[in-house]
Amino acid sequence: MNNKIVLLGYMGVGKTTTGKSLAKKMNLVHFDLDNLIEKQEKETINQLFYKKGELYFRKIEHQLFQELLKNKDNFVLSVGGGTPCYYNNHLLLEDENIISVYLEASLQMIYDRLVEERQQRPFVKDLNPIELKEFIGKHLFERSFYYQKANYKVKVDGKNVTEICNEILEFYSK
Fold first, then answer.
1. CA 6 distance to own-chain centroid
2. pTM of the model
3. Alpha-carbon 13 to chain mean position
4. Exposed, middle or buried, 154 (CB in 10 Å: 0-12/13-18/19+)?
5. Rg of the chain's alpha carbons, rounded to an integer?
6. CA angle 43, 47, 49 (to 5 degrees)
7. 84-93, 111-120, 142-151: which has the minimum mean pLDDT?
8. Is the pLDDT of residue 2 over 70?
9. If 0-12 CB within 10 Å is exposed, 13-18 middle and 19+ buried, where does residue 129 land?
């Protein structure tokens, strides 16, 4: 079976953790798009946003995303929360060799995760808890159009990584 699995969803929903576990179960390589960008640019995502801006980041993100999807090998790819929303990246997910999975979480679950780790996230590091919740709600609304384009959706609230991976494996085996 020739497929690439791309995990998408808002920041903090567990795309990287799920991707690593899923890849291990499937004996595939796992890529994290943000990590690849950091390696290529030799700077953290926070540094890139601060020094070069979001536009530069999105351009690099798009280029790497395109290159990865052209790869002939199968893999699991975790992308950033905004990846499908820029440069028509959501259209790249329509390829028949790509299985896209939206890891959907509630606003409250995302908030609970991000409020503790917001210093590591360039978009939300300067927000207080009230601003953070409003920001997440607004972003989820704006980005839901792109997330809903995924081939499959897995609700992640109240589920552990094994349960999420098992749902994705069911899609993959169809």
1. 8
2. 0.95
3. 8
4. buried
5. 15
6. 120
7. 111-120
8. no
9. exposed
Q: Please report the DSSP string for the chain in residue order.
A: ---EEEEE-STTS-HHHHHHHHHHHHT-EEEEHHHHHHHHHTS-HHHHHHHHHHHHHHHHHHHHHHHHHH-SS-EEEE--TTGGGSTTHHHHTTSTTEEEEEEE--HHHHHHHHHHHGGG-TTTTT--HHHHHHHHHHHHHHHHHHHTTSSEEEE-TT--HHHHHHHHHHHHH-
Q: Estimate to the nearest angstrom the gap between the alpha carbon of 116 and the chain centroid.
A: 19
Q: Residue 169: what residue type?
A: L
Q: In this structure, are residues 12 and 113 in contact, taking their beta carbons and an 8 Å threshold?
A: yes
Which residues are CB-contacts of 67 (< 8 A; sequence separation ≥ 6)?
none
Residue 101 has pLDDT above 90, yes or no: yes
Only one residue has tokens 């979001």, namely: 54
From CA 34, how far away is CA 66, in angstroms rounded?
A: 14
